[in-house]
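From the thread on structure requests for the teaching lab: each student submitted one protein with a one-line request. Submission from student K.M.:

"Model XshC-Cox1 family protein from Streptomyces carminius, tokens only."
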Amino acid sequence: MDRTRHRTWHELHRLWEAGEAAGLATVVSTFGSAPRPPGSTMLVTPDGQTVGSVSGGCVEGAVYDLARQAIRDGTAVLERYGVSDDAAAAVGLTCGGTIEVLVERVDRETFPELGVLVDRMRAGTAVALATILDGDQEGGGGDESEGGGGGRRLVCWAGGTAGGTGRRAPDARITGAARRLLARGRSGTVRPGDGPRVFVNCLVPPPRMLVYGAGEFGAALVRQGSLLGYRVTLCDARPVFTVPERFPEADEVVVDWPHRHLAGQVAAGRTDPRTVVVSLTHDPKFEIPLLRTALRLELAYVGALGSRRTVERRAAALRAAGLADEQLSRLNSPVGLDLGGTDPAETAVSIAAEIVLLRHGGRGARLSGTTGPIHAEGREPVRGVVGTAS
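Reply posted by the TA:
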């Protein structure tokens, strides 16, 4: 989940704790070239301020008005926006896609489980919020229904649940569907069994980027990683260079030997298949033990800076350290895409571009020279890169 979504939920919780009502708009489904994925949110505060986005600007004004109305009268609305026409007053998407947006009032009465949800998020727990979109459905399996329209919620995580839908579709069935989506880190709309349609918003902790090397290239990559929504750690064994003031965008600045730091993160359960590791150390005594450790792990991306000659020497050293060719094939080195740049900022963009390309299974071609949909749905990630920063 990106940092904007985190800010949206934490600001919503602040208002909720203060006993105030807010309007919350959530993208629950998309089709075609939609600008924002399911789970994207826009918060409208009681004084009319906004946090977040549901469309990147196309329909924000219309959604804003609905959110203000929801604050006033408590009416929940499920609105669909498709392709806009040429009329000046038309509201729609210029990108050719379609989005469905749930707009609702949030306060202590309408969302009593919000405190549990945000507590789970603050603890770094992946948590799912299941919200009923439809009214009661016939044939819901014989359970008693409490009546009313859509909008009842159930919060679930690996170790428990809070709240309940109050609908005919059993909570156990909805919980199972929500946990399956949560395991994939993907938000989406489901219809468990023959019950009502349910939107599952999967709120997962941001993926981690571990940057090893406290130089200008490291500082530039820290900035790029933060922009991409990663929780970024900068680590180097040299105290004189590894000071927080040099890396203000880093979430953590750590003085330690790189391989020892990575091993400690693994032992503490702080890495997962979404974690990115980049070595910018240029020094074999730091780099070889680090890469020997990283390439034996299930990580999203492992990269290392270096010239062609350095790459050859490094590969030989890693083979001598016991790594097999299959493990060496996971190393992205020379790191980054060939964008032609050479300075630290340009190199950081190159590295970030490679990470994004592999995460989404992109081609790296100029869009102006391609045809067909810009956003390829269902494209498989490359080289084991999994998870998102959304």
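TA comment: Confidence is low (pLDDT under 50) at residues 85-89, 136-150, 378-390. The chain has three domains: 1-106, 112-205, 208-369.
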